[in-house]
Structure formats: structure tokens, C-alpha cells
Amino acid sequence: MTNPVHERIAGIVGSNDVVLFMKGTPFFPQCGFSSTAVAILERLNVAFESVDVLADMEIRQGIKEFSDWPTIPQLYVKGEFVGGSDIMMEMFQAGELQALMTETGVKPAA
């Protein structure tokens, strides 16, 4: 049996190179972890799609099941789950997140 929420999430993840499921929006993050995640992506100067989980309770719960990861924000690059803000920060500080964006062909923000 397919889960319609998981299908919606898969569609979002599959149609965008970089997707951040977050609380709030990039212009008005609603938690410190989401704010940190946005700041990292902006420092990397990559275009990304954001999904405000506070605006859609089905997505808010469904994304945790979809990734088998209990917290938000969640970052996806080229359809693959990367992690939350702590993992993003560790990867960014080690240069690994920049390398991932380059290796996967993620385009710079316009």
C-alpha cells in the first residue's frame, strides 16, 4: 500500500536538486536549527527549495517516516537524504558539504 504523503515528499525531493524541509521559511525560520541550515546553504550559494513543515502537518510527520530521521530540518541533495542541521554543520566545517554539492552538480544560486 502506498502512502500518499510519502509520494508527495518523493515528488518534491525528486524534482529539486536541493530540498530543505524546515520549520518556517528561509526568510523567517521558526527555529534555530532551521535558521542554521538556511545559513549554511546560503554560504554555499546553492539554489534550494524549502518546505515549511509547520504549514502542513501531514508533511511534518510524513518526512520523519520518509527519512527514518526524527528531527527537522532535513536536507536532501539530488534525491538523497543528507541529515539535519548538526550533520550539515559538521559536513560544512569539514568541506564535505561543499564537495557534495560540486560532485553532484548542484548549480549556484542565481
Automatic annotation (TrEMBL):
MF terms in GO: 2 iron, 2 sulfur cluster binding; disulfide oxidoreductase activity; metal ion binding
Superkingdom field: Bacteria
Domain (Glutaredoxin): residue spans on this chain: 18-82
Binding, [2Fe-2S] cluster: 31
Family: Belongs to the glutaredoxin family. Monothiol subfamily.
Family matches, as InterPro entries: Glutaredoxin, GRX_PICOT-like, Monothiol_GRX, Monothiol_GRX-rel, Thioredoxin-like_sf
Taxon lineage: Bacteria, Pseudomonadati, Pseudomonadota, Alphaproteobacteria, Sphingomonadales
Family annotation (CDD domains): GRX_PICOT_like (cd03028)
Protein's organism: Sandarakinorhabdus cyanobacteriorum
Pfam families: Glutaredoxin (PF00462)
Gene name of this polypeptide: grxD
Protein name: Glutaredoxin
Keywords associated with the record: 2Fe-2S, Iron, Iron-sulfur, Metal-binding, Redox-active center
